[in-house]
Amino acid sequence: MFENFQFADWIGAAGVALLLLAFAMNVFGALDRQSVWYSLLNALGAGIAAYASWLIAYLPFLILEATWCAVSLIAAFAALRRPDPSQNDMSAP
Fold it and tell me: At what angle do helices 36-55 and 7-27 cross, to 10 degrees?
């Protein structure tokens, strides 16, 4: 099966692997869906998968993955702007 993989297949597989890694880490509690790392993994995976879709000229998945990438980047920026709750030290006078 893998001997028939083309360049676009390997690129697409890498992107999907990153998406699945983020998903699995979230499901098993290793990565919070509100974290910047979760959003960045999704953005990177979706961006790579979008590139693979572009390589094979498959517009439906190009639109899907590009949108996924854009939404994930927006979420990453939002996570960076969110105040860190651990910085709220109530013990100071």
Answer: 160
